Amino acid sequence: AWREPAATAWTRTVCPYCAVGCELEVGVADGRIVAARPALDGPANQGHLCAKGRYAQGYVDAPDRVTAPRLRRNGRWESAGWEEAIACAADGLRRIVAAHGPDAVGVLGSARATNEENYLAQKFARVVLGTNNVDCCARVCHTPSAVALGRMLGAGAATNSFDDIERAACFLVVGANPLENHPVAGARIRQRVRRGARLIVVDPRRTALAAIADVHLPLRPGTDVALLNALAHVLFAEDLLDRDFLAARVDGVEAFAAHVAPWTPERAAGLCGVPPEAIRAAARLYARARPAMCLHGLGLTEHVQGTEGVMALIDLALLTGQIGRPGAGVNPLRGQNNVQGAALMGCEPGSLTGGARLADARDRFAAVWGVAPPATPGLNLLGMLDAARAGRLKALYVIGYDVLASLADARVAAAALARLELVIVQDLFLNETARAFGHVFLPAVSSFEKDGTFTSSERRVQRVRRVLAPRGAALDDAQILCRLAAALGHGASFAQPQAEAVWDEVRRLWPAAAGLSYARLQTRGLQWPCVDAGDPGTAVLHVERFAHGARAVLAPIDPRADDERADADYPFLLGTGRHLHAFNVGTMTGRTPQQALRPTDTLDMHPYDARQLGLGDGMPVRVESRHGDAVLPLRVTDAVAPGRLFATFHDPVRAVNRLTGPRRDTITDTPDYKVTAVRVRPA
Ligand code: SF4
């Protein structure tokens, strides 16, 4: 039997998948990855990895990896040299900026790229092109968390650390399925529950975590705010508040009490479909436990009220004093390894590096860059596509992201991409966006072929180390950005693609990262804020004061009426999400042996509904929404309630994102992937 050769060298780096940020050692033989093992002292994983981190590196040498630049000529992709490809991309950008102005171009950074590369991407947009049209895929996942936490507490990031899982006496998990999507953190939660911590799960589905919960609240999709208001109502009604904490650190209590007074559990139960007694039981458990930790996922954020949903969750933590202490807090479980880093580096239209507000920090950045960032507010990802559809955006430079396969309302996204005069895609593979709409393809390298840093969900900046030589002619994103900047006449300010030098520039601009030198990160990742060389980093935020001041203000939130409802034509409500063995749209896991473990996306339906429709397990079914359709094999399971469906979205060909529609979070534009009315029939 054939066996992998034994590794001849091991290099420590960070898992390329979710934002738990597990550290691993990667074994190489004959220039190929042959093994991966967990770092025993990895801060978040402590000797563990999930199946993806351990086994899913095969995409690096997948047969369809593209390792030389390509240009589309006469409708066909042709290989090109770097000089020709860079010149073509630069000429196209120069022409469009000259004809239509800099705001006719958009740039998308990448959660797959390092902090340093994302920093350069937004600097490229602002300095070279002269636009704030820069964003990243945080827009479609946890921007609502960052905005809600930033507004209410002053720092748009998780308040606590994964180690705090061991200290929590109770978990309130809202719209998250960590056993599948953040498996190492999920396993830590499950272990802690087995050792006595209490568990409340708010999720329409009976996930494996919900199955072991003390209280499972299987709410009707999209009713999070009503449910959270009812939990707050119980806190007041049963005097479960932390009065000392409120007196010392929170304003707006009386107004908030008046706001939630009508939100009795009985009233919420009518909207949310959960028993009033379960709501009361959850409120009691959460408030009485010391400490209790909130963890939330995209089930809370990817809604028309995504940001307000997170704000309502923060209200609960403030009312009970479950914040600013170990084992407590409000903690978004970030999906991609460096999605927090991408946004924090400035790949956001309204923020510069470190989350500095564009309006406040232009002079400070001008002092380092030699040129001020443009003053005109930029477009976010959704706004860019709207502008493309309207003919105002002419070019899009997409780094490490498959727009077409990822965005809700895929047909509309396709129509927008089709109108662009120039689409530059920088990735490992010809993804769906490149295949359908790309004009220039710039081959990038995987995280195993470069140096830099990632920022994990717990605000930990960790070193990414080169394990392998870059494949073929592929270059890392920093080198490509610097070449493109040089071709556009900005070689001087983009002369330094070495990761450490770029990071030192980041540290000059972001005071909360000033103490995070490569020398210190060499031995162990550290959590920002870390303001100088003697600062050990910050495991728990908001201990004495909130990041924006001494007091936080409660935010009364009203549930909004949602026009996406099940009706006679579309009788089911569909939510989408991930499963254990695949990651996002499958660009990486789809090219590894993991794919064989669950080779296709599926549609989950309750046995009652399946019987009513005469459908059986494994049957191919056509799912239709008002926005599009998809064919999926059926999985009959009582993990979903009657009338509700769940589909995974890892196969870009099945394209479940054709089903989801145009509804967006009213504050951040994050698409609603969780509530879509659909009908189902045999395919
Ligand atoms: Fe990688 Fe996340 Fe799995 Fe850890 S839990 S090994 S970071 S995918």
UniProtKB/TrEMBL annotation:
4Fe-4S Mo/W bis-MGD-type domain ranges (all copies): 8-64
Domain of life: Bacteria
Gene Ontology molecular functions: 4 iron, 4 sulfur cluster binding; formate dehydrogenase (NAD+) activity; metal ion binding; molybdopterin cofactor binding; NADH dehydrogenase activity
Cofactor section: Mo-bis(molybdopterin guanine dinucleotide)
Keywords: 4Fe-4S, Iron, Iron-sulfur, Metal-binding, Molybdenum, Repeat
Any GO CC annotation of this UniProt entry: oxidoreductase complex
GO biological process, one term: respiratory electron transport chain
Family the UniProt entry places it in: In the C-terminal section; belongs to the prokaryotic molybdopterin-containing oxidoreductase family.
Protein name: Formate dehydrogenase, alpha subunit
